[in-house]
Amino acid sequence: MTETAHTKNRISKIDQLPDDIKTQLNILLREGKMPQTEIREQINALIDEFDLPEDQKISRNGLSRYSQSFHKGMARYQQAQQLTQQWVRQFGETPQTDIARSLIEIGKSQIFDIQMKALEENEPLDPKTLSVLSLAIKRLQEAQSGSVKLEKEIRKQAMEEAASTAEKTAKTLGLTKEGATTIRNQILGLSS
Q: pLDDT at position 126, please?
């Protein structure tokens, strides 16, 4: 096992901290009001208060690596929030089926990008990745057919409501029962 592989799979001291201490660390990093030296001092003081072993204290380099990872995660989270807000603004007034259809297309596009990147780099996808992508494609297709089915059901219900309203209105306007039924059937596309 190489040194890189060994350190890559090792759990950091910070990830091993109790949740209370790690939460405090995350709050201090998110606020960004203190330099890392002060944050490290406060966290190490908490480690002392919790009577944790001395080797649990965080180093300058450990905090620096964790901080970089934390801020990258926060940036991804903020991007996801912004994207969600854009979708809400864009699709806020559109039917749910349009939103579902758009999200399915985004998913398909992401899978296509992964496959194209592998082809461009002339590196075949490993079996695990292929399996995950295949499952994702299957689920997207199921979601798409479910979305189409839902859309048809919504249209059918809307047509039935419109037909019932038209039939009632026709009757109140003095049309015969047969005439009102004919109008209803015409709206529903049924032969009379």
A: 78
Between CA 84 and CA 90 the distance in angstroms is 10
In this structure, which amino acid lies at residue 105? E
Which one-letter amino acid corresponds to residue 185? N
φ/ψ (deg, to 5) at 107: -60, -45
Residue 11 DSSP code: P
Identify the segments of the chain with pLDDT beneath 70.
Answer: 1-10, 80-81, 83-104, 144, 147, 191-192
> Which residues 6+ apart lie within 8 Å of 137 measured at CB?
108, 111
DSSP assignments along 93-155, one per residue:
TS-HHHHHHHHHHHHHHHHHHHHHHHHHTT-PPPHHHHHHHHHHHHHHHHHHHHHHHHHHHHH
Half-sphere exposure of 137 (CA within 13 A, CB side): 12
In this structure, which amino acid lies at residue 32? G
